[in-house]
Design a protein that fits this description.
Transmembrane segments: 6-23, 35-54, 60-78, 90-108, 145-163, 175-195, 207-226, 232-251
Keywords: Membrane, Transmembrane, Transmembrane helix
Protein name: PAS domain-containing protein
Largest sheet: 5 strands, antiparallel
InterPro entries: PAS, PAS-like_dom_sf
Number of helices: 17
Helix content: 55-70%
Domain PAS: 402-471
Structural class: alpha+beta
Distance between the termini: 115 Å
Number of strands: 9
Strand order of the largest sheet: 6-5-9-8-7
């Protein structure tokens, strides 16, 4: 008696210790299912110790409690895991199987619901556990932890059927298999994938599944009513346990539906509010504020570490090479083991020309929360990209209209005006400038450096790179390779939202100088040295 109890104590302690060590070592995304599995092994060990000392009734109470813990444990494994994304169909089938097993046991196998000393409640519970563990294996056939859970559930079913019929070391060893396999399942690294979060997959509602769930919930009360009408309720315990399990499955099914509906409403409301704010946004800070407000509504506040609307992607934010071509989003590791970084590029294929640099919405937070809101965050990134493209296009149209207005005002004036971008590319030039340099039309992508004489280009370039307004004197090179001296007055309007460049006003000052200065860069090697020296002094101080 003592040695038998000691054996179960050692097996239970070893299984619980293995699960605790495995959870602390591998750090799964959700630890609650493994803690429930450890608690069920501890309760089972206590029941086996009571059974060794002959306390059958107390042992049966612990066994029933263990079944309840294991049912909750396996249902936790199927909640939001990567192996079972949609567990609605599984719950419906389990509830129907539970009611069907009860009816078969009571009315087919025997009038008392027993086959020898085999407990009907234990067998029904074992079959349900076997179904859930088998579904985990079907989700990933290479998951060793799922196979170990299935092996342990098979050992429990074999022990509950074989041990009452033929007590002995062989049938008792099936329970040892349960302790060993469930303990080893937490030690294998594949245990992480059992609770790895995955995006929810909503299946369409069908009326037949509701009928199946209603029939499953009505099975145990129907069996109880039939036995009561016959005059004696023989299988009260079995009916009560089956009814409790079926009720738990039904409540879980309804809770999942309510939770999914609530999450859908929250996402819809958050996206609707964000869309309205992004449509009204007039600049990039407004878009950034709208995106941050939307993220706070779509995700739990405690699950978000960082939200950034980047203009350009740094090398650290690019997708891994092994991930293949970048799609609508990709994942990157974070500092904390439970956190991940989701990168949603802000680029729409038809409008790549508007913002070639792209940018991205970068969110760092708990991976489980990010996966739940993954689809909504991708939609939010698309809306933000549309808002930024709209703002960029409006600014471009505004600059074009400003250029057209400026061209219409000064088309017939004698003033020479040039509008250049930050990179000194000529955006607009007045007709008087084209007449001055002897060209009918300027090339589309010409820069100011190409109009200025090569010797004056560094001086003009440095002057225009400096902040503020100013005046500089330089020579322009005509189409016939002659030069024209001009006084260039520039105004720095790079911060102006409509201009975003520099406005240059040119004045021809060639006639104000000595005729010998009209070609200041020409070579005069054949002239007298005195003339060359005089010309050199004039060239140095001509401005």
């Amino acid at each position: 008696m003592f040695w038998g109890a000691l054996e179960w104590i050692l097996l239970g302690s070893g299984g619980v210790g293995a699960i605790i060590y495995g959870v602390r070592r591998h750090r799964p995304a959700r630890k609650a299912p493994w803690w429930l599995l450890a608690a069920s092994l501890a309760v089972l060990a206590v029941g086996d110790v009571c059974y060794s000392y002959g306390q059958r009734d107390l042992a049966d109470a612990f066994y029933l409690f263990m079944f309840g813990l294991v049912v909750v444990c396996l249902m936790q494994f199927t909640r939001g895991g990567a192996l079972l994304v949609d567990r609605a169909r599984l719950i419906d089938l389990l509830a129907f199987a539970c009611s069907t097993l009860l009816i078969v046991w009571v009315f087919v196998i025997g009038p008392n619901g027993r086959l020898g000393d085999v407990s009907a409640a234990d067998v029904i519970g074992d079959v349900l556990l076997l179904c859930v563990a088998g579904r985990l294996v079907a989700g990933d056939r290479r998951n060793v932890a799922a196979w170990l859970l299935l092996t342990g559930a098979t050992g429990m079913l074999a022990g509950d059927i074989g041990y009452p019929l033929a007590e002995g070391p062989l049938t008792e060893s099936t329970y040892v298999l349960l302790y060993v396999c469930w303990g080893l399942s937490a030690l294998h690294p594949s245990m992480i994938r059992l609770t790895e979060p995955a995006p929810s997959r909503h299946s369409p509602w069908k009326f037949r599944w509701s009928v199946l769930l209603a029939a499953s919930a009505g099975g145990p009360p129907t069996v109880l009513l039939i036995e009561a009408l016959q005059g004696q309720v023989v299988d009260g315990v079995v009916i009560a346990v089956t009814a409790a399990v079926t009720l738990l499955l039904t409540i879980t099914r309804l809770a999942d539906s309510i939770r999914q509906h609530s999450q859908a409403l929250t996402r819809e409301q958050g996206l609707r509010t964000a869309t309205a704010a992004l449509v009204a946004a007039a600049d990039r800070p407004s878009v950034d504020a709208a995106v941050r407000a939307a993220v706070s509504q779509l995700l739990p506040p405690h699950g978000v570490r960082r939200v950034a609307l980047a203009d350009e992607l740094s090398p650290a934010d690019l997708p891994p090479a092994s991930a293949g071509p970048a799609g609508r989003s990709w994942w990157l590791p974070a500092t904390e083991p439970d956190d991940r970084t989701l990168v949603c590029p802000l680029r729409l294929e038809p409008l790549d020309v508007v913002r070639p640099s792209g940018g991205a919405l970068i969110i760092t937070g708990r991976r489980e929360d990010l996966i739940v809101g993954h689809d909504a965050l991708e939609v939010l990134a698309g809306q933000a990209a549309l808002a930024l493209d709209r703002i960029t296009l409006v600014e471009a149209v505004g600059r074009r209209d400003s250029d057209l207005y400026l061209r219409a005002v000064i088309r017939n004036t004698a003033e020479m005006m040039v509008v250049i971008d930050v990179d000194q590319r000529v955006r607009y030039s007045s007709p008087a400038l084209r007449e001055l340099i002897g060209q009918d039309e300027l090339p589309p992508l010409i820069t100011l450096d190409e109009l200025v004489h090569p010797d004056d280009r560094p001086m003009v370039r440095n002057a225009l790179r400096s902040l503020g307004d100013g005046t500089v004197h330089c020579a322009l090179q005509r189409a016939d390779l002659t030069q024209v001296l001009v006084e260039m007055t520039y105004r720095d309007l790079r911060d102006d939202r409509l201009v975003q460049g520099l406005v240059l006003t040119l004045r021809d000052i060639t006639r104000n100088h000595d005729p010998a200065e009209q070609h200041p860069y020409a070579e005069h090697s054949g002239e007298m040295p005195a003339w060359v020296n005089r010309r050199s002094a004039q060239q140095r101080f001509r401005f």
